[in-house]
Amino acid sequence: MYHGNSFVSFHLRRVADCLLTRTRFPFTSVFRSLNQPITPGRSKMATFVRHVSATPTSHRGYAEAIAALNSLQTPAKELAEQRRNGSRDIKLSVPEVRQCAARIGITPKDLDALRAIHIAGSKGKGSTSAMAEALLRATGVKTGLYTSPHLIAARERIRIDSKPISEEMFSKYFWMVWDLLEQNPSTNAMDANEGGSNVEMPTYFRFLTIMAFKVFLEERVDAAVIEVGLGGLYDATNILERPAVCGITSLGLEHTAILGNTIQEITVQKAGILKRGIPAVTIPQDPDAVPVLLRCARERGTPLGLAPPLSDYGAPVTVGLQGKHQAYNASLAIQLARTWMAKHPELCKNPDVTEPQPASAVPREACRDIDVVQPGGGGTLSPAWRAALSASSWPGRSQRIRWRDVSFFCDGAHTYDSCKACAAWMADASAAAERELFEQNTGKDKRIVRVLIFNVTGEREPRPLLQHYVDISRAGGGRFFDVALFCPGMTKAAKKNADQINFMENVEDKLPCSTRCREAWMDIQKTQTAASGEEPSEAIVLPYFEDCMEHIVALTKNTDVADVHVLVTGSLHLVGGFLHFAGSEVV
């Protein structure tokens, strides 16, 4: 049997096709043809990819890289089992990633050279990361940006100068890291007790984190903006020992099964990125989080600064990212970028950007109330930075698109606080769009129909999140949403996207989850409509985006409808699936 490059490439593409169609791959027959046994303790997929990955990098492309990357996902059933028996120990993440980095030749000193801005938080860390990157780029700095999750393509997670790396660059570095890990196997006994983790290969997010660091080092970025994936203390990104500055965005309850059931426990996890002697900046926080955050900063010897309100920067600052909640994210980004500039002025190549010193450390007398901010603490803002903030955007967050003659409002809000902010943004944005339409003398005698497309992932309880959307009311009173569609985000389309495959969720669980969301929506409405006497909005469970669009397009046909406003929210995976369905290839 011929085992050359064409054979390997053929079977890797078969793996990719099977991932897309969710059909079974004939592992047994392929292993027989390769004269290779299935490795004990390893999944058939991982065993197969290990064997075929020995082919030269030049014969392995992007599709094959995504197929191999997806093999590193932990299946939903295995995750559930790990949660039940307590074998999923997130405390092992940092030591494992540190060891994997060493196996591919990355030392702690190498990571120091990234001059990183490390950002944790419950809400707004992606937006803050995007704005901080934009400010540094406006300063003439070559930037790297690492965020998660991706919306459409995995390469969106790793950006250079704000642009997702190309498929060619992704393939190059993916196989480079993969091969280095294969060539330098682990010898640490810790790995044998990893509790389900692959010994030779780290899991999906950990692999991409190591790969991102490799890309930024090889491409010689001046600064890397790194968004924490989950928590902070035990997050894979926390192998950064000497970043330039750390940022803590808004804190709230999230991922309680992993991070803790109280805001105090979650604050400890987020504050885990703070480092001795490394400056950090935060924003006004929940009163219960404040003493914990300050205690963590003192224990770690971290000078903690407080970002002032956006109104403190002289003339009004326009932020491209929509929503009132983005104001503090923008101020935090400014202070993070100023702190970085103060440490690395030699790398700031734009002479037009002259910024004052960053926010000072939170004084001891303010420890009981982090909301105490001295007026005028922002100082003036350079025109180049004003322009950068005005042009800032972040896909899937407060994003508005027009497609098929319908206005879509997309936001991946999935926590209690972020859904509250999203509901406020939707109310304002929809009202503004309605005024804009009527100012054009279009549809003055007609009505706006508003539709919610919603889904949650994992074990999130939908009722508290949905409460915010039921609470919105129209300008003249009455319910805001006319129709609520609960959709798991699947598509009938033949063209599917391997980048969006998620083995960490069961397909079988998706529709029951949507049904659970609908029941919560109806239950909330029952309480509120009983008092008002108003009819509840229509609530439907639909399995596919195509079904949702069919329902929405039918609404546009009504002669009394001027426009349809659709909010897609509840999950970044849902928003990403919708954007791909709507024709986007990468964002």
Key descriptive features of the protein:
single chain; 587 residues; alpha/beta; 8-stranded mixed beta sheet; 6-stranded mixed beta sheet; 20 helices; 11% strand; globular; disordered N terminus
Number of strands: 14
Spatial arrangement of strands, main beta sheet: 4-3-2-5-1-6-7-8
Largest sheet: 8 strands, mixed
**Helix proportion of residues, in percent?**
40-55%
Query: Helix count, per DSSP?
Result: 20
**Dominant shape:** globular
Q: In terms of per-residue confidence, which ranges show pLDDT below 50 for 5 or more consecutive residues?
A: 1-7, 27-35, 189-198, 362-376
Distance between the termini: 43 Å
- Given helix and strand content, the structural type is alpha/beta
Q: How large, in whole angstroms, is the Cα Rg? A: 25 Å
What do the pLDDT scores average to? 84
Strand content: 5-15%
Give an overview in words.
It is built from 20 helices and 14 strands. It is α/β, with parallel strands linked by helices. Strands 4-3-2-5-1-6-7-8 form an 8-stranded mixed β-sheet. Helix 8 (125-138) packs across helix 14. The model is unreliable at 1-7, 27-35, 189-198 and 362-376 (pLDDT under 50).
Task: Compile the SSE list and pairings.
Elements: H1 5-21, H2 27-34, H3 44-52, H4 62-70, H5 76-85, H6 93-103, H7 108-112, E1 117-120, H8 125-138, E2 143-146, E3 158-160, E4 163-164, H9 167-183, H10 204-218, E5 223-227, E6 245-248, H11 256-259, H12 263-270, E7 280-282, H13 290-300, E8 304-306, H14 326-343, H15 383-390, E9 399-403, E10 406-411, H16 416-439, E11 447-454, H17 462-471, E12 483-486, H18 507-532, E13 538-541, H19 545-556, E14 561-569, H20 572-581
Parallel strand pairs: 1-5, 1-6, 2-5, 6-7, 7-8, 10-14, 11-12, 11-14, 12-13
Antiparallel strand pairs: 2-3, 3-4, 9-10
Helix pairs in contact: 1-4, 2-3, 6-10, 8-14, 8-15, 16-17, 17-18
